Amino acid sequence: MTLNKFRRLRIVISAAFFVLTSLLFIELSGNYVRTFSDSILFFQFIPSLVSFIHTTSIAATGFIVFMIVALLFGRIYCSSICPLGFTIDLINRAAYKLARIKKPNRLFSYKKPWNKLRYSILIVATLLFAGGLSIGIVLLDPFGNFGRLVTKFARPIFVALNNLAVITLEQFDNFNLTPYASDVFDIQFFIYPLLFLGLLVIISYKRGRFYCNTVCPVGALLGWLSNYSFYKIAVDDNSCIECGLCEKSCKAECINASDKYVDMSRCVSCFNCFDSCNSNSLYFERRYGKKVMSKATETNTSRRNFFASTGLMTLALFRKIRAQNKVLVYTENTIPENRESPISPPGSLSVDHFVTNCTACTLCVSACPTKVLQPSIFEYGIEGLLMPHMNNRAGYCNYECTVCSEVCPNEAILPIELEAKKSTQIGRVEFVKDNCVVFTQKTECGACAEHCPTKAVRMVLDPELNLRVPITDNKICVGCGACEYACPTIPYKAIYIKGNIVHQIAEKPVEEELQMPEETDDFPF
Amino acid sequence: MKRREFIKKTAVGSMAVPLLTHFGSININAASKTTQQEKFDLVAIKGGEPDTMFNRAIQDLGGMGKFVKQNQTVVVKPNIGWDVPPERAANTNPKLVGEIVKQCFDAGAKEVYIFDHTCDEWKRAYKNSGIEKAVEDAGGTMVPGNFERYYQDVTLSRGKRLTASKIHELILESDVFINVPVLKHHGSTQVSLGMKNNMGIIWDRGYWHRSDLHQCIADFATFRKPELTVIDCYNALKRNGPRGVSTADVINMKAQIISQDIVAADAAAAKMLNREPTNIGHIRIAGELKLGEYDLTKLSISRLNL
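Above: the input entities. Below: the structure tokens describing the complete assembly.
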């Protein structure tokens, strides 16, 4: 058998998936994500699972494929497809490189599994999800976490490099490269990804795929299935020379060389062991109802409590910081906006649908051309932690755009036709007269009406002021937030969007016939 | 680019501009009696395609060569504010912009730049307005306008409410500035024309909106006026401006107004929308500041029909 070729194949496939998936989040023009998101995301476990629950379509069966594969050969997904798994391998490799250890894959040793913690996490996350709370998945899902890491740490580097290239070319009067706006830096959106990355580096440094085998709910589910896999990795008693190299090379720490035992539930199918074995003693064996050794251990409850309490404490530490610009001549207004509900993007049907299905992977945030989609902290409540919402201070929803619905991997934002989107009301306009420039400064403004695509806000002459004042019409408002974004008042907006908890259909703007002037050759002057 | 030099030059120029233009216009009138070519202050034309109308109208102002000299750099500022197709008349007609770029090159321009600080997402607006393609076909260069780093601080010594602003460096650096707005209704300023179009060459529009919009628009004209204003009245946005809701808001006027005097051009265009120039705040203020002539009876106008 030439099983040691498997390792190389696995490396090639996983590197390809890592690059292709990363590009979804960092390719700046957004063309790539629109073209390829469906085919790449098909293979991602959680996105495919969550969207399958809603669409039950063949296009969302990627997770089933890998569950079947797990029942046949084990957790192929974890080493070949999962981008976070590849990231962990990279961290691991880098750690050894930094420590100048020449043979990086020879330092692991068999460790007992933390099965009680592992399956508890899986069960709790599943129960929460079944009860409509995706927070467990949001915090632990490998794809979502990977997405946030790339969006928060890699994408800014690419934006900066691109813009540096733009500036350099401009010195030579070349404007062929497109600059991209860098995201506004807000520390609160970095807290969780930073915490996650920190913990990931620490536990992966010495313990390899410990995250995958203890925390990750996908790893736990596929691991549980792999316990019953048709083929399992076994050691040939006759040829094995008991050198222990396979155990040292196993980053899942699931090979016990002295007992010649491989814990298939923790094996991530990296095939390093095949490669390490000098006597070719490892092979796939059919599991003919042979009883698998059960190696259950005591669960360390203090560790479990630690995870729960650190999570909650960090959340409690979040604080909101609002930057406020000052202007000298203009008198600042005093009435704060009274937002009752967050605004979820068009296509998400309702806040409820959105929060139950979003895994906060932030792919839509990367893809949104106007940057109106921003991660939230507590806007949706604790159950919607980190999920994107429409932040009309950052931008507004382009009337002619449906990109977020095209790229969402788990149908939290369902695909929506442009015409349907144009009449989807995600929120309603709210006008605060006493904040408005026209009323407070007694001068013309009209920035809100300028931007409104449906004229749900328009300017009407106020005979008393002899100025044009905004008049709003809730029925034709789509809640795009252009008026709010454009409103120049400080510090509070005079016009803003109140989110619709359940999205509504906006009425079509009435089109009156325009009186055409008579054709004439004369000019009115 | 010789940015510092240009800024210095324009700063000095800005102080001289009000004097020069005021007396300059008198000089042009005086000269017009003798030379056929420089007879008109303003050309109004009807009945053709945007490019053919411009081609004809510019002759009555002395031809493009009068404005663009050999090896000069030109910045053309159309209205590309919105992510809507050309027939919606929220953006300047792409055919007209393309023709202007072409004529600049024919007159010997070294480089022709086009930009707008758009309202809607800029890449989509550049593309869907049709202007990006028209410009590139004509050999011009589209430059981004939605990034603060392109904008330079300037002080406006004659501004009443607008005393400082950040202006796109192309406006400061280019030899020739051609303003190409589209004739539009506007919800608050009533019309959106040449001076209003200047809101797309500065960074912080919000400041203008909250600090007496009409005054700020007029204040800006004390700083930098275009060498040429071409108002596209081919399709005009008659109501629901400046963005419009649908093509039902558009009338097909097939007209164009061009002038060296931005105030005169705005006054004439306002009349095309049945508004009295003196009723439009910023046109009245600019006229009172002697930044141009809004009384059309005092101008020599070429009226053409194709």
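Note for the figure: The two ends of chain B are 42 Å apart (CA to CA).
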